[in-house]
TrEMBL record:
ATP binds at residues 422-429. One of its GO terms (biological process) is actin filament organization. InterPro entries: Kinesin_motor_dom_sf, Myosin_head_motor_dom-like, P-loop_NTPase, PDZ, PDZ_sf, SH3_Myo18a. One of its GO terms (cellular component) is myosin complex. Residues 1-39, 71-122 are annotated as: Disordered. Residues 1104-1180 form a coiled coil. Belongs to the TRAFAC class myosin-kinesin ATPase superfamily. Myosin family. Residues 100-120 have a biased composition (Low complexity). It comes from Bursaphelenchus xylophilus. This is (pine wood nematode) hypothetical protein. GO terms for molecular function: actin filament binding; ATP binding; microfilament motor activity. Pfam families: Myosin_head, SH3_Myosin-XVIIIa. Residues 327-1040 form the Myosin motor domain. Gene3D superfamilies: 1.10.10.820, 1.20.58.530, 2.30.42.10, 3.30.70.1590, Kinesin motor domain, Myosin VI head, motor domain, U50 subdomain, Myosin, subunit A.
């Protein structure tokens, strides 16, 4: 664990000082030998770049900067840099030499940097420690939101049109945890879209916090008192409210008086007086500080003024600062000077203002959770404000990105993808929930699928697949791809969750700081006494997990278990299936507790027979069947393999069976959830990828295990995908479209480490054995090969790894343990140690899945049979491994995988390759970067600058922002662009020729010329138009303005048509009313006339006579129909008799015909036989005649 370096408290005079290393005297001029070593390192520059496959070329400015730095070092010997061993192989001067004043990439301090003793091929220089008092981060005062007074009047319903919502949330103080209260006043009805100026001035907005009612503070009022105060108000009421930070930023952006961010003494007066061209950031070990450049000196030195002192520093220690009005910019790409320090300063100021989201270009969003706990439910009503908005209309937010993705899906009807990446504990899972919640609120008008249903499904999978680790109390231990399906009208109609690589090691062997899956704690604490005893838990004295929980944790686990049961029922799990899940979990607990004794699996037995018998009873099989399945395996498994059960111990076989059983349970639950969520066929999808966070920030001395190694590899593959999406693919597109764009690729790429891990053997079929053995291959496949070699162990594994990659600076031996190696993750920003003890056993094949398949198929329990359906037990769809198991359709789609042996890591890489291909085939790929602001073990400051700087570098975020600003990230085919924006140009097509009418490229160019879009903001390729990120937003606004007149005219015609229809209807109604009135007046005149009275009394009597006459007619008609029916019956009987006669005649004729056919067949057979006899006799006669001739000739001679 790294610790923050304390600043020196020594007082210094106002004289120029030089940077010094911690706990070291001021630097002295180097010796001549040191100068020579620095020169030698510079001369090695070209060799370093070529040896490590650095992609791209250096620009002319960067080469010039390298030459200047080289000359300065030749001249002065690097006296201003920290002294290091020039022959140190872990040090490369490349990044130090390529830094520029405006775009320097400064690393973390030596005391707080997550990098250990590792350096990459492209190493960042370490920040220096300057012996200056009061040198610290810029002051960050509390940012307040201006409250506004609103006067509301009673409406026709007699109320004021708003609701009161009161919530409670815990806050952490020095005295412990306290409960705080917030009261919200929100409008009952609010239009979708961004708030109007009238809403900001005279109305309430969703999420408004209520401060005062009629001048009285609501925090001092009870709920009943507050309601009484509102009810007793007159015709109007005066409220004081303030909006949530997102809307406060919107109010500031739109320059509407009202709610806005207020800065009190945010900058010192001396800081504000610094001219813009002299404002720089000084990067040091404690973070950064604002300085004023006094003079630029030769040899790359700069004289600055900081803390009322003047000093001389190296130009590489400075970053250009932005004006103060950019301190809370919405987008990093909008900064005037884009560099790491300015980006960190922006993130720090926004985080201090309660703004956790910041854009980093059109397709990248940075989320940084604050140190304090989030208040859940505050932003739920913001969905209506973000619904239907464009990116330029709303501040940076997860809802803005979700709306942008959904809008792109509506326009193109093509699949979209969003990737959530970050370290463990950075809030990825919660952001996925927020993303899905917005899509359900925005596109859930079909009511086929609600957010509550998806949330319940995710909650169930988290209960079965999440656990507590040192970095995260709710760490995801499986990869999930959530696909939201939409119909042709872009309405949400289905969802599908695909899971991959469940970390089953958490069941049997885990770190002391980790827990097992949450569901076991829920089950143990949440069962009632009767069920607890029926599952046999009274036979378990102590479960395999830690049951020493506090009373609060026990109550929380019990409540969580009941929520899981309720979620099962809401997702159409039957009671039998729920009981089967409980039985399988109980069987796993009994099997782990039962234990095994014996060095060989085939000769082992259970230690505690009572628990094993109970487990067999819960699974619906006999004890002998369970014992055979666990220790003897399955006959379907290849018993000729050297890795059959005879090579396993009893405990290993038992652990393998338990892991396979839990994996099967997890897959069955996922399949059942997908049956409910996947209600209809999707026309297009939005895919959300969530992978377990990287463990780069693990501060313990405990090395990472195999599952962490694979999860970190997955994170590196996501970084490689980000690199390809932001650098390689755009540059390839520019090349295909013949567009010249000066965008440089980063010198370091994640592909180096990815290939170091997963590089396959290319010379497998080569006849040259020596060349084939010397070919470098990834660590994954070295592990696979070692697992099949007889006599291989951890020592040989380590030696083979360094035999292939000893020259690489991304992998290093650990000085602490000979069975441990260190990898430089995140572009070598983080050094992670891996201990290989037990890895070879974990990846060897196991027959547990085949044995489990037979157990589940032969079970006599109807509950188990209902949960585990036979289609889910296809043996060919699983890779038989102990460490992890892959689940669901992703595995089936990948198949057995390729590679030299088709082993464990071949399946791992193949499955993730399938995921990557799904993401790459989408129309747009968006990234949500979740950064951790502070280390989980230290809460001393709002932000750990060195930690955030390392995460920005590891994610290539700043490089992608620069590439976006210099490139053209938005693209659209000419035909689509013309069809969408042709309305902006009024053109007379009668005067155009056919070729001009069909020329989309020329039409697109005319649109840009008419809209006065400068040429540097767009490029016309061969088939597509490439534009800057803000051009499409500008054209969309003009298009809306242009189409607004058409829409208004259309609405006017519609209203006119409806008015005419309503008028015609009113005329008919008036005529009917007039007719009724006239008839009613006549009736009033007639009702007193005697003859009318007589008529009224006689008319009912006439009905009796009419009824008799009608009855007589109906009887005559009935008799007629009966006679006709009898005649028809007689005719039918006659027809039936004739039919029977004909059938008898037909049967006789058929019999006669059959007899004749048989006679004909016999005659034909006899004829054939006689003809054959005749031919035979003729042949004999011929032969006899020939014999007689020979005999006569012989007789004559004789």
């Amino acid at each position: 664990m790294w610790h923050r370096q304390k600043k020196s408290q020594n007082e210094e005079n106002s004289v120029p000082v030089v940077p010094v290393k911690p706990s070291q005297a001021p630097a002295i001029p180097p010796k001549s030998g040191e100068k020579k070593s620095f020169k030698k390192r510079i001369l090695q520059f070209s060799g370093l770049t070529s040896a490590h496959n650095v992609e791209g070329k250096l620009s002319a400015a960067e080469i010039k900067r390298l030459e200047e730095t080289k000359n300065r070092l030749f001249k002065q010997g690097g006296a201003k840099s920290p002294e290091r061993d020039p022959n140190d192989p872990l040090r490369s001067p490349l990044k130090t030499l390529t830094a520029s004043p405006n775009q320097i990439s400064q690393p973390s301090s030596s005391s707080t940097s997550p990098r250990s003793d590792m350096s990459s091929d492209l190493t960042y220089s370490l920040p220096k420690t300057f012996n200056i008092p009061n040198l610290s981060l810029p002051a960050l005062e509390s940012v307040q939101i201006k409250a506004r007074d609103v006067v509301l009047h009673r409406n026709v319903a007699g109320d004021f049109g708003f609701t009161i919502r009161r919530i409670q949330y815990p806050i952490t103080t020095e005295n412990g945890t306290e409960i705080s209260h917030l009261v919200f006043a929100e409008p009952v009805d609010h239009l979708n879209g961004p708030p109007r100026p009238s809403d900001l001035l005279n109305g309430l907005l969703p999420g408004d916090q209520l401060l005062q009612v009629e001048g009285r503070d609501v925090n001092r009022l009870k709920r009943d008192e507050l309601l009484t105060l509102i009810q007793e108000a007159g015709q109007s009421i005066r409220l004081r409210v303030q909006v949530v930070p997102e809307l406060a930023e919107l109010a500031t952006k739109t320059a509407v008086s009202g709610d806005q961010l207020q800065l009190f003494s945010q900058f010192k007066e001396t800081d504000l007086n610094i001219p813009e061209d002299k404002r720089y950031w000084l990067v040091h070990s404690a973070g950064y500080s604002l300085v004023e450049v006094v003079d630029h000196q030769p040899d790359g030195l700069v004289k600055i003024k900081v803390a009322d002192q003047e000093m001389t520093v190296d130009s590489s220690d400075l970053d250009k600062a932005n004006p103060p009005n950019f301190d809370r910019a919405n987008d990093i790409a909008a900064l005037k000077n884009i560099n790491e320090t300015s980006a960190i300063h922006l993130l720090r100021n926004r985080l201090g203002s309660g703004l956790q989201y910041t854009s980093a270009g059109p397709r990248n969003l940075i989320y940084m959770a604050s140190q304090s706990q989030e208040i859940k439910g505050l932003n739920q009503d913001l969905i209506r404000l973000f619904k239907g908005c464009r990116r330029s209309q709303m501040p940076a937010h997860i809802y803005t990105t979700a709306q942008q993705v959904y809008r792109q899906l509506q326009i193109t009807s093509r699949p979209q993808s969003v990737v959530f990446n970050g370290v463990s504990g950075s809030g990825k899972s919660q952001q996925i929930r927020n993303f899905i919640e917005f899509l359900c609120g925005c596109a859930g008008w079909t009511k086929r699928l609600t957010y509550e249903e998806i949330s319940l499904a995710i909650g169930i999978l988290e209960a079965f697949g999440n656990c507590s680790t040192e970095l995260n109390q709710n760490s995801s231990r499986f990869v999930q791809l959530i696909s939201l399906g939409f119909d042709t009208a872009s309405g949400l109609n289905s969802a599908k969750i695909q899971t991959l690589f469940l970390d089953l090691e958490k069941l049997t062997s885990r770190k002391p700081t980790d827990s097992t899956f949450h569901i076991f704690y829920y089950l143990w604490e949440g069962l009632d006494t009767k069920t607890f005893e029926s599952l046999g838990f009274d036979l378990i004295d102590r479960p395999f997990f830690d049951e020493n929980l506090s009373e609060t944790d026990r109550n929380a686990a019990s409540e969580a278990f009941h929520r899981v049961l309720e979620a099962f029922r809401n997702l159409n799990f039957s009671e039998n299936q729920i009981l089967a899940v409980q039985k399988v979990l109980a069987a796993i607990l009994h099997l782990i507790y039962s234990g095994a004794q014996g060095n060989l699996a085939t000769k082992s037995a259970f230690t505690r027979h009572s628990n094993a018998e109970k487990a067999a009873d819960l699974l619906g099989i006999s004890f002998d069947q369970l014992n055979l399945a666990v220790f003897k395996g399955s006959q379907n498994f290849d018993q000729s393999s050297r890795y059959k059960l005879v090579n396993q111990t009893g405990n290993e076989a038992l652990q393998s069976f338990v892991q396979a059983l839990y994996n099967e349970l997890f897959g069955a639950i996922t399949n059942q959830i997908n049956k409910y969520l996947n209600k209809s066929t999707a026309f297009t999808t939005i895919s959300l990828l969530d992978i377990p966070g990287s463990t780069f920030l693990n501060s313990t001395s405990e090395p990472a295990d195999l599952s962490d190694f694979i999860y970190n590899y997955y994170n590196e593959r996501i970084s490689e995908l980000f690199y390809k999406s932001n650098f390689k693919s755009p540059l390839d597109l520019y090349e295909r479209e013949k567009v010249e764009v000066e965008v440089e690729r980063p010198l370091a790429t994640p592909a180096h480490l990815c290939r170091l891990i997963d590089r396959k053997q290319q010379l497998l079929n080569s006849a040259d054995v020596e060349k084939r053995s010397e070919e470098p291959r990834g660590i994954f496949f070295v592990l696979e090969e070692e697992s099949v070699f007889p006599g291989a162990n951890e020592n040989s594994l380590i030696e083979r790894v360094f035999m292939h990659w000893e020259e690489s600076k991304l992998v290093r031996r650990s000085p602490k343990d000979r069975f441990q190696f260190n990898l430089g993750h995140g572009l070598n920003q983080f050094s992670v140690g891996y201990k290989v003890n037990g890895w070879l056993k974990k990846i060897k094949p196991s027959g547990a899945i085949f044995a489990l398949t037979q157990v589940l198929q032969n079970t006599e329990s109807p509950y188990i049979s209902e949960l585990f359906t036979v289609p889910g037990l296809k043996e060919g769809s699983y890779k038989l491994r102990r460490a992890t198991q892959s689940v669901n359709e992703i595995v089936a789609s990948v198949g057995g995988g390729g590679g030299s042996f088709g082993g464990f890591f071949t399946a791992i890489t193949s499955q993730f390759d399938h995921l990557i291909s799904l993401l790459e085939r989408s129309d747009r790929l968006h990234f949500i970067h979740c950064l951790q602001s502070v280390d989980g073990t230290r809460r001393s400051d709002l932000m750990d600058v060195s930690l955030v700087r390392s995460q920005l570098r590891a994610g290539l975020i700043m490089d992608s922002v620069r590439a976006t600003n210099r490139g053209y990230p938005e693209r659209m085919p000419f035909r689509d662009f013309r069809r969408r924006f042709q309305c902006l140009v009024k053109e007379n097509y009668t005067n155009l020729s056919l070729s001009d009418t069909l020329d989309d490229r020329s039409a697109v160019k005319k649109i840009f010329e008419k809209m006065q879009i400068f040429e540097f903001r767009y490029r016309l390729g061969i088939s597509q138009v490439l534009v800057r990120s803000d051009v499409l937003a500008e054209l969309e606004e003009k298009r809306d303005l242009c189409l607004s007149g058409v829409i208004e005219a259309f609405q006017r015609e519609c209203r006119l048509h409806l008015s005419r229809k309503w008028l015609e209807k009113r005329r008919i109604q008036e005529q009917a009313i007039t007719c009724l009135q006239r008839n009613l007046s006549q009736y009033l005149k007639l009702r007193e006339w005697p003859w009318w009275k007589l008529f009224v009394r006689v008319v009912p009597l006439l009905g009796v006579a009419r009824a008799d006459e009608n009855e007589k007619q109906w009887k005559q008609q009935l008799q007629k129909l009966e006679s006709q029916n009898s005649e028809l019956k007689q005719s039918r009987n006659q027809m039936d008799e004739q039919l029977r006669d004909i059938e008898n005649l037909l049967k006789t004729e058929c019999q006669t015909s059959q007899n004749l056919a048989n006679s004909l067949e016999r005659e034909s057979a006899m004829r054939v036989r006689l003809e054959a006899e005749i031919r035979h006799l003729k042949t004999k006669l011929v032969n006899l005649g020939w014999f007689m001739q020979i005999f006569e000739g012989f007789w004559e001679k004789f």
